[in-house]
Input
Amino acid sequence: MSLEDEIKKARKEIVADGYEMSVGEIISLYKDDDIIIHPDFQRLFRWKEGQKTRFIESLLLGIPIPPIFVFQNEDGVWELIDGLQRLSTIFEFVGIRRLPDGEIDSPSFLEGTKFLPSLSGKYWNPTSDEADDGIGRVNQREMKRSRIRVEILKKESDPSAKYELFQRLNTGGSPLSNQEVRNCVAVMLNKKFYEWLKACAVYAPFTNTTALTDTATKKQADTELALRFSAFRNIPYDGRMNIHEYLDNSLIEMARYDSFSIKKEDDIFQRTFTLLDRSLNKKAFKKWDGKAFKGRFLMSVFEVIAIGVSKNIDRIEEMKQTEQDEFVIEKSKALWSDKVFLEHSSNVSGITRLARLLPIAEDFLKP
Output
């Protein structure tokens, strides 16, 4: 198929529309649940007060702002794909923003700006009949008449178009990490899969053995690591794809298709990390220097030891418990004498590392 044919085919898979709407119309749609923001997306609202103020200032001054993107579902309801920070700022300021638990958020106030210093301390409505801290009816009307372009992905589009669009709009230069974007995609695809993945990330033996920092956890590194584990086990890595593209595609494949059994994978996940926790605890996935396991978590060790144990968990569990522990410990030490591992565990690209280490995991941990 030629490039031109590929472009024509891809265009047919995306049915889109778009037009400008007033802020007032968008507020009304939100009040009537005709535009929805998934509760798990709402938790990603993280603009600071200064950012919120500058955005409201832009609306008041009539400064053009970027479009928002929505997906029109089977009921005609718009699901927000991109524009969370902007719309949440509007809804919070007006006093209608719903929190993940369904409660209404407290109305926010503005800060003074270079052009509008008198915005300082102003709310949408006055805090009392006597107070002079509202922006006033005239300014409310002006803001509600401000226009935002809404790009609409129609329900007739290819089912994967919504997830592809979300990833492209929210990856690179955005406030979301790669895994936060994947989490949102997982929610749209299969909430049960998403909830299982989050449960894996907080499973005690998993958190003990990976021993990630608080900073890494806040960026969803624990959830990404749990995703890597199942992806490496179930979705072949071709040795060419960027790791993040591979994880994006793997998540969609595992979440969308019935061939992936959450129950079966959860059983293997728990048995694997229970064994690793019992035998190595926080020493798992660290460097063996000949005398002790030291240093930080190493992805290369995780890719061999965790995946290798999981692929052989039935045979390993046939041993006595003390033998299981000794086996895992000795294999973790022996890894640092393995030629293939030493050649490809550091100072190589992630693509090369995965292509060389994943294939040796199962045989290396075979009893």
